[in-house]
Amino acid sequence: MRSESSRAQHALAGHNDRVRPPFPTRVPPLLPEFLNKRRSKMTFPLKKAEELGLDRPAFIWAINLSYRGPKGGAAEPGDLVSAYATIPDRWLPQAAAARGAGLVEERDGRWHLTDKGRGLAQAMHEAARAHYATLAVLPKEELSELAGLLDRAFLAAARSPDPRERKHTPFAFAYRADDPPAGSFAQLDAAIYGLWQVRDDCHFAAWRAAGLAGPDVEVLTRIWRHEAADETALAELLSQQRPLDVRASIARLRKDGLVEPDALRTTERGAQVRQRIEDETDRLFFTPWPEEVGAKGDWIADKLALLNTALA
Question: Whole-model pTM?
Answer without folding.
Answer: 0.92
